[in-house]
Amino acid sequence: MTLSLVLVVAAALFAVGLWGALSQQVVVMVMMGIELMINAVILAGGAFWWFTTPSPDGQVLLLVVIAAMTVEMAMGFAVALLLHRRRGTDMTDMASELKR
Amino acid sequence: MIGTIVFWVAALVAVAAGVEVFRTDSMARASYALAASFVAVGVMLLAFELDYLGVIVILMMVMEMAIMALFMIMLMGMNPALMPMSMVHGKRTATVVAAVVFVGLAAAALLIPWPDRAGAPAADLTRSLGDAVMGSKMLVMLTVSPVLFATIIGALVLGHPRDRYQRYGDDLERDHPDDPIQGGVGR
Asked: Where do transmembrane segments lie in this chain (chain A) (predicted)?
């Protein structure tokens, strides 16, 4: 188990999440893709911490990343709920006002 | 040795479950697959002796995915046995972008000469994290706290069925808001 190999696993997780975030039409599925990407960041952060500088600072940074994931989740659900209530849909293609 | 085996099994589960999230037809199963991926990452963090963060990730994500499954069933409410789900757009572009990103990140991970470890982990990592959070890194947590509070307020404002902007409907210039129950100061 080396840093490089753990980072390759994190890269695979990140790529899968990116594919989902870019390709999915349902808002909640897009959120799942973003969650997978943050999951990869947590793994990579933990690996960097363990293999380079195992000081408490790295753990605090990981706590902040986990908090960011919580914020993303809460706001994503709120937006999905709002979209569903206003439009009766949960598809990203139906919320494209900013394109105009 | 056992730690290495556990790590690689967890890595395999994390990536395979991540792929399964977007392959399955069932919303609930997609949530469970994502939860499995997070649990596997939590196990990998435990392999790095990050006991506190590993347990936090596992507990938090299992609960989060349970809520997510509820939302997905609530919003979509489809039975995968009756209606197979494939709601994607720009699949080819997404595949190319994801593949390029993976190759780039993996190449960087393998080719960059990473520095050797500097220093040794504390004897009690959870205690050292607690000391940091309550001591030198307290400002970080003091910053995260209002962000989480603002998130609660923002989510409530967005999720509430009737907000201040809906009181006037489409006509924002109207004299009186269209409240179902009149009240307040005589409006």
From this structure: 33-51, 60-83
SS percent in chain A: helix, strand, coil, step 5:
85, 5, 15
- CA closest to A35 among chain B residues: B34
Per-residue pLDDT tens for B8-48? Answer: 999 999 999 999 988 887 777 888 899 999 999 999 988 88
Residues (pLDDT < 50) of chain A are: none
CATH number of A3-93: 1.10.287.3510
Number of Cβ within a 10 Å radius of residue A53: 14
Verify whether the Cβ–Cβ distance A19 to B158 is below 8 Å. Answer: no
Look at the block and give the residue holding tokens 């960097």.
A48
- Domain coordinates of chain A in residue numbers? 3-93
Would the CA dihedral through B165, B168, B174, B180 be positive or negative? Answer: negative
